[in-house]
């Protein structure tokens, strides 16, 4: 056979093979057994029922109050960063600019006045400010929970402060009474000794 015949024969065989592959039916892959999909069990959370949160208080202009600086102030106060806390409380009052924000910032600052380590420590001023703040209608305000805790702390401070003042006054009265008794005993002793000397 000539080379050209061999080439033609090779091409014919290749053509037959290609056609056979193209026409051969493709056998589908055996189907995998499909497992039935089970529905995921529903998770029930034992969460408390929703309650009204004072954190979503609405400002006088209808917008919600932003407690970011108030909360940052209390966080700074908790770690005794008094300058930072004071700055945050004042910034909160300035940015919110409402009667509620003013009251909340003033309560926080009054609380700082009761802390001996605070640079603005002044218990007398704290008592005065708290009395003034307490006279306002704070119960009608939607106050942050930390503000309510601060108010309770100040109330406790005021009660203890009053008790300490009463004890000091009582102590002073007892000192005066003791001094008068000592003077009376001294005079009585002098009189007794004088009478004894006269009798001799």
TrEMBL record:
Signal peptide: 1-24
Keyword terms: Coiled coil, Signal
Coiled coil: 164-191
Top-rank taxon, per record: Bacteria
Protein name: Uncharacterized protein
Organism from which the protein derives: Pseudohalioglobus sediminis
Taxonomic placement: Bacteria, Pseudomonadati, Pseudomonadota, Gammaproteobacteria, Cellvibrionales
